[in-house]
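Q: Here's a chain of 77 amino acids. Please give me its 3D structure as tokens.
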Amino acid sequence: MLLAGVHMNLDNEDENRKVNEISAKLGDSEQTKKKHATQIGLRVNPVIGGGTINATSKPSVTFKFGLAHTTETNPRL
């Protein structure tokens, strides 16, 4: 997908780390960057509370999707 310049949404820091490792192997010349440019989105969990109905619950710190937006993770976002 990186070679094709596909837009990707990543769910966590591990996925981001893996994409960075693959990108580093492709090289960092201007030609490579233009040829393999990729748009990446990172899902952020706003940690605004739970809920009583699962279908409409809002993400909490333990929510399995997205990088939790906390004091600890804020510098990395």
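Q: Can you summarize the key feature?
A: The beta strands are 8-10, 40-42, 44-45, 67-68.
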